[in-house]
Amino acid sequence: xxxxxxxxxxxxxxxxxxxxxxxxxxxxxxxxxxxxxxxxxxxxxxxxxxxxxxxxxxxxxxxxxxxxxxxxxxxxxxxxxxxxxxxxxxxxxxxxxxxxxxxxxxxxxxxxxxxxxxxxxxxxxxxxxxxxxxxxxxxxxxxxxxxxxxxxxxxxxxxxxxxxxxxxxxxxxxxxxxxxxxxxxxxxxxxxxxxxxxxxxxxxxxxxxxxxxxxxxxxxxxxxxxxxxxxxxxxxxxxxxxxxxxxxxxxxxxxxxxxxxxxxxxxxxxxxxxxxxxxxxxxxxxxxxxxxxxxxxxxxxxxxxxxxxxxxxxxxxxxxxxxxxxxxxxxxxxxxxxxxxxxxxxxxxxxxxxxxxxxxxxxxxxxxxxxxxxxxxxxxxxxxxxxxxxxxxxxxxxxxxxxxxxxxxxxxxxxxxxxxxxxxxxxxxxxxxxxxxxxxxxxxxxxxxxxxxxxxxxxxxxxxxxxxxxxx
Length: 472
Ligand code: AMP
Ligand code: MG
What we know:
Blueprint: E1 19-21, E2 31-35, H1 37-42, H2 53-58, E3 69-71, E4 75-77, E5 80-82, E6 90-97, E7 103-109, E8 124-125, H3 126-142, E9 148-160, E10 164-174, H4 180-188, H5 192-206, H6 212-234, E11 236-237, E12 259-260, H7 284-300, H8 306-318, H9 320-336, H10 345-358, H11 363-369, H12 382-396, H13 403-407, H14 417-428, H15 433-442, H16 453-456
Antiparallel strand pairs: 1-3, 2-9, 4-5, 6-7, 7-10, 8-10, 9-10, 11-12
Helix pairs in contact: 3-14, 3-15, 4-5, 4-7, 6-7, 6-8, 6-9, 7-8, 10-12, 14-15
The structure holds adenosine monophosphate and magnesium ion.
């Protein structure tokens, strides 16, 4: 069966300043190791893999209608402006309008060198490919906006990192790959016409109701504020919130050293390169505001009278912490079973979080256990929980919230780090059973799954994975 993809490309219609045409580089012996039926259906692709899928999703055969290109962008990496980044190992094949009416990019990640590869080899190894596959699909199932994974292919070629590892290509699907950094590069270069063109394109594609650059800024702010609050509510740490990894669409993008917390602590950092803790769990809201300020700075370059726009842009950015705080409270109150939060409920939430931090309580399991009578099990000192719970129970009186609703705010399953590492180790040895099982269980994170209790359990001390790697 031949893979027909109904491409309908718009980004490739933009002027060439935004990208470099680039075909994927062929690989030796591609083998399809994962195929996402659910997403395939939305994209109008067959539910089961045909003969040439490995060829297409490794980049060996460019499907009809694809217009492969690498996108140009820049960005602040750990606060430092890097004047040129771009897709160094990702190739956009094109766009497809799904059965849900949503336009999405189909991108191959790890598909070889591009004009923006700098010193890199343009490749990815199997570990990060499977990691992104599992975590992005888990995020989707958690109800959090995210890029998705359509396919994973082993290339049959080694890639050299700290050691020699199996190469792989991920097919990533996103509402677009426009980033804060996509705007920054044209603003920094003073290419105002390109900046205007990009702004119009982003508005049309993502926020058709937005008026002008400031309307776009407002819309991105609202989407990002919701996104970060959602991350916080499941204990997710992105790990590399650089402006080039901050999507205009408000989706989670670029899963590198990301991780979900096991035991709760606000300063938790996993990324081995984040030595200063810039992207620690509790810093994420501040960083999102910082990133939005960079977008604001870029967007105002297209106005004749920039000074006049500074005030409006500043106002828009300054409203973000409040929006995030409200979204945060709504989500955390729901986790406690409170449907209509009052301002003072924030105290109830932070009091619980403080006690959790002091008692090495597992983030996911503590919230999931609420109402079970066994919550204290998560705390080194269970009385720390019971003291808090008195006030909580009092607050819940008269709450019309049914049990099921609270459970729907508190997942049972997250992709725990130690399970991810285990899964990668097995896959490198050719055993995909742990990968397939994780994908299956994490597709229904809010359901009790008695057969999967091992995936709910926090790591034992000897199982803890203290650091994650960009591992590109
Ligand atoms: P990331 O940290 O994955 O967001 O990547 C930052 C930049 O480095 C982006 O421009 C990537 O395209 C580029 N990059 C990362 N890994 C590679 C690689 N193996 N080869 C070429 N470019 C890469
Ligand atoms: Mg990136």
